[in-house]
What does this fold into?
Amino acid sequence: MPINYYIFLSVCLFCIGIIGVLTRRNAIVIFMCIELMLNAVNLLLVAFSRMHHAAAQSLDAASMAGAEAQIFVFFIMVVAAAEVTVGLAIIVMLYRNIHSVDINFLNRLKH
Amino acid sequence: MNGMITYGYLIPLLPLIGFLVNGLGRNFLSKKMIGWIGSGVMVMAFLMSLLVFNQVSAVGFKTEVLFLFDFIKTAGLDFPFALQFDQLSALFLLVITGIGSLIHIYSTSYMHEEESPHFARYFAYLNLFLFFMLILVLGSSYVTMFIGWEGVGLSSYLLIGFWFGNSNYNNAAKKAFVMNRIGDLGFLLAIFWMLAQFGTITYAGVFSKASTVPVSVITGITLLMFVGAMGKSAQIPLYTWLPDAMAGPTPVSALIHAATMVTAGIYMIARSNVMYSLAPISQNVVAIVGISTALLAATIALKQNDIKKVLAYSTVSQLGLMFLALGVGAYTAGVFHVMTHAFFKALLFLGAGSVIHAMHHEQDIYKMGGLKKKLPVTHFTFLIGCLAIAGIPPFAGFFSKDEILTAALGKNIVYYILGVVTSLMTAFYMFRMYFLTFHGNFRGTEDQYNHVHESPAAMTWPLIILALLSVLGGWIGIPAVFIEDAHLLSDFFSPLYTLSHSASQLHLSHSTELLLMGVLLLLIVIAIFTASRMFAKADITEEHSSSFGKMLANKWYIDELYEMIIVQPVNYISSFFARIIDVKIIDGMVNGVGKLIHFSARQMRLIQSGQVGSYVLIMVVSIILFFIFQMFWKI
It folds into this structure.
């Protein structure tokens, strides 16, 4: 499959994420949109990795060049999982304090 | 290096010690103690100077340089701090320490009304002045001379403004300082130029190389030096500070503004005779400025009523004559006149001080009169001083003035005629002052008259000693027309001029010289006689001045002229800079930066709304803009 499809899919997912972040006020939805953007990038990374790897193998069947990005993606997922934990904990604390997850209430943090 | 000169550094050191002791101990030393310390160090310095002079005047004496320490020493520059003992500095040493001692002794009595701390301050300043003056004449390089030169200016400022409670006196002090600074700049530039040209600033180094550089350079250097001399020695156009400097105590006027400091300019030119002899243009400038100052100051002195102002203008005039002598190449005559003038002008100032003291600070000669009987010693010594300055033989002034006039005649007859006119005016105004002060009826109040008393011994003895010197001082320079080879001073000074190309002196026949002397003497006697007819009357009221007389009484309106063409424009420019450049532009720039940041910050803080959504929007928009920029404006 040509790389263009992967790129197009990633861009679509990323834009959906951005628009979600910009337009929604619910902290959980925003959080999900951020994850969406992250995974759009992950998808792109895997797609490019495959492309490079295929190109390298066509020259030298034993080559592993380009494959390491796929390992990289796992790391990103792990870190993202940790980040999600922290982010969700913050949102829970937020809800306990102000009984809402609407981010517009957060501007009270300014002095 | 042997004999007394090895210890020569003590001569300037002693007044410095006196300055420190009196200056630091002013709150707990008694007045008697202060007087003893102040005068004691000077008398000691004088005795040492006598010994030094004795050694210098020995036959076959060679100039000795006493190295003290390195003032500045780097790869290219070497300014040693060293003292030079030769004929010129030895003579100045004697005059400075001798008259300095007498004036210290005189001051112990003259200043006795001052409270103890001020009394000590006075003596400390006086000692400081003498320290710097001695550095000035003893230094072996132009830089050392400049240190003394600035130091005497400072001490002069401090002493003119000694009674700082009076703002007029402070202004006079500031005027003296500022005018001196103008001159000092010239001197400083001359030093820099010499350093650039010769690579050294010691006298020996500069003089030995002087003939190797173009005449135009020497002319420039000597003219700049003369600017310095104009300031310090009160010559046109920088002379107006000296009459104002009379605000200081009278002994200060005698010491600084008559006998010593104001002759520093003459010392400098006499010291640099090698260079001046190479630069005829500079010599002419010196002579012309000198004779014009002499003439101008003498005309002003004709109409002054303040006893000290008359003496001040007379000093300016006599300094002008000395510069005339230097300008026509008669360096010995110039220095000779410095010496005799120091004697009789110090005498006259101290005599005037005695009169002022007796009259309880009255200085207007129209409020005096008939003081002859009340102040016999002062009267007699003052008369000797007047005779000496008028140039009556055998008093000191006759010999030195005659030598100057003869030298002037050798150069240009116009100088001679103007010199004679100046001498006549000098005789007239000095005797006008003498008759108004000591003859006729007393014109002050009854009460004042009863309080007039002769001054104490500490004041009269210096007067008597100076009177003796004013009589005898000229005999070291008897011209050949009276006795062959009796001019001790010119023999003494001859080693100083070995390097300079002495100008061809006019050799008048003895009969012509005697005739000229006789005619001049006759004219002077007539001038004195006229003065006595006009001012020795029993009752005399203030002269009714013609418009010309008024112009003289107002000093040719020179002060007003300076006020108009220099002070006021400077004031206008400064207020322009203060109001426009400083307030509008410089302050505007500084405040503008502050205002700009304040204003932009007020606009920028609206962006910081605290709305997370807006932050994210800005971030996304920025990233998109960044991408667009990257794509379409590839660098």
Observations:
- The domain at 3-106 of chain A is CATH 1.10.287.3510 (Helix Hairpins).
- The first helix of chain A runs from residue 3 to 23.
